[in-house]
Amino acid sequence: MKYHLTLIFLSMAWSALVFGDSIFGLNKMNSETSNFYQLTLHIGRGTNTEIPKELLGAYVPVFVVAKNHELAAQKAVSSLVQQGYEFIDIEGKIVQLDPLKWDSYVSEGWPEFKGHFPVKSEVIAGLKTEKIFYGPFAGYDKPATNK
């Protein structure tokens, strides 16, 4: 199913939360420590009023610090549901990132949104406090019609 996408820029939220596969040369981390994960959630508008009324939902990249990918997913979903969004699904894989290579990840994957994301030092500091933050929301207003 294809969607007409509209980018929505919502402010980064730092909440007490956490994030699993390897990307950008991840160094093995001790299982006793927290790891840094990225996953994309498909959300509906729910009761949240930040999404413009004409949009039905959005795809949201979520970055979480957690002990494992399952806790990362739980925390990511919980964070958005607490804000009034409806959880629909996890899109794609949960990916474990190397926080030491965060600046390269942003420069290569999100160059046009560099100012939206925290800098590496903030990500590394977030490992101790299990923070969560979001990339830009990609909203859609209707499923695309296939003609």
Describe the structure.
This protein is of the alpha+beta class. It is 22% helix and 36% strand. It has helices at 69-82, 102-109, 120-129; strands at 3-8, 15-16, 22-23, 35-44, 57-66, 86-97, 131-134, 137-143. Strands 1, 2, 3, 4, 5, 6, 7 and 8 form an eight-stranded mixed β-sheet that branches. The longest helix has 14 residues, at 69-82. The protein starts with a strand and ends with a strand.
Topology:
Blueprint: E1 3-8, E2 15-16, E3 22-23, E4 35-44, E5 57-66, H1 69-82, E6 86-97, H2 102-109, H3 120-129, E7 131-134, E8 137-143
Parallel strand pairs: 3-6
Antiparallel strand pairs: 1-8, 2-7, 4-5, 4-6, 5-7, 5-8
Number of separate helices:
3
Q: What's the helical proportion of residues? A: 10-25%
Using the CA coordinates, give the radius of gyration.
15 Å
C-alpha end-to-end distance = 13 Å
**Cα shape:** globular
Strand content: 35-45%
Which short descriptors sum up this protein?
147 residues; alpha+beta; 8-stranded mixed sheet; 36% strand; disordered N terminus
